[in-house]
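Researcher: We're teaching a course module on how sequence relates to structure. For the next exercise, students receive a sequence and then see the predicted structure as tokens, so they can try to spot secondary structure elements on their own. Here is the exercise chain.
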Amino acid sequence: MKPKQESNTAFDQQVNFLKKISFFQDFDDHELKQLLAVSRWLKVPPGTLIIKEDTLEKVFYILVKGSVSVFITVDQSQTIELTTLATGDTFGEMALVSETRRTAGVKTTSESYILMVEPDILNQASVFLQLKFYRRFCEILVTRLIAANKRMGDLSSQAAESSASKQTQPRPVVPPRPQQPPQKKETAPPPDPLPAQTPGAPPRKIEVNVSELPPAPKLMAVAKAKIKRRIQSNLELAVNPSVSARLASFLVGDCEDIRKFSELISCDPMLSAKVIQQANSSFYRRTTTVNSVPHAMVTMGIKNLQEVIAQETMKVFNEEELFGGFGQLADNFWLHSVAVGRIAELLRDTIRINISEDVYLAGLFHDLGKLALDRQQPLFYPQLLRPDFIEKDICTSEQEYIGIDHAQAGYWLGEKMGLPKPYLDVMLMHHTPEKARENVLLTGLIHLADLFAKDKGMIMGKEGPPQSLSTAFGWIIVQEQHRPFIDVNVDNFIRSFKVELERTWGEMSSLPLT
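Model: And here is the predicted structure for the students to work with:
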């Protein structure tokens, strides 16, 4: 009972702290406790960077006790202090209404107690608490707007007085430096369909002259709702031309090799998604969800399936537009998608997991959002051919340059297509399985399969520092969801699984196009 009493005492002390701050002057104890339950109480030492300039972060801070410095950086090294904030002040307010980049940094100048409020979590509190909180927030914004207008008026008056008393020399106008148009790279003749990789051969390496790459895109600050509308209004994405060419002979007359037909469809993420979408449409009046290509073939019938595939493969896709026209990126994308699906199947069978969803298809779909994002910002993915473009990880860079990452894009795309929920969860959470609340085991398997594929060099491009396999959160999920695995030594399992993966890698990392 003692730890609980101490916890309650600390909670009451936090409430008393908040009651002394003007922001919470109209809040009662119950509302303050509600607020504490949906926010984070931080004890921060002096010299800690709370907000970094030019970052995307949807968080609002209340300085419960202490002091912070608000600053901007000039010339990449020199900082200019704009103001200092003390107990009771707030900062980062714009994150409550708009997910824009931070225009200034904030650093503690003394030991501080800070309340960190995330709008998405705050919205889970009671309506009355939200109304009171946002009313106080609006009062702060209005007060600061009035103060800003006053300062602007004072500056205008000073400028007028200065110009009247002192004649200034006109400054010469420096013409802008002409911008060199990007050189158009010479396009090589189209490659032959992707050959099956020789068993035991090393992964295909990316070889490109960096000077041929397009310029890096500018950092974006586009509203997520706008990006979502763009993605969900364009569901016609690229199909692997090698798979499309191989499927041509299966689309006329009777299909003599249904198994091969199914295998070829399953080699392409977009074709598989379209088939699943059609099979689950109201036209077929299914009482159960279709979640695999073979199941879809039975539901639709071969003739209907041939029509759907023919429509998709006959659509003209300009290969020069996909991933900036760099065929290596496209090839690596499709091979990585297939490899993750196959590795996930091997993991499932090796660990002996009984799972109802199509594990291969979940792996095939996991990066589907990259096709959608490439339509939004064609200059981004070619930058993965630069050795030092990604500083942190691929998702962070996508958010900075496009506005969202491929995980969110895949979820929105799959949601609009009506794909089964397990595949949506995998697309959204395969980089952050610790956040998964549904289809947790499936998400954990795809997370691990993705890491094994990258460990083998089967990646689209330079996607940032490699993540450790042994410390991946997916192992925790497998141990929690599959009890027989709880006593397994993860490091030993990884070593033995790599041996098996090496033995079957030729099959894992190739497309059955012959």
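Model: If you want an answer key for the exercise: The CA atoms of residues 144 and 150 lie 10 Å apart. The chain has 20 helices and eight strands.
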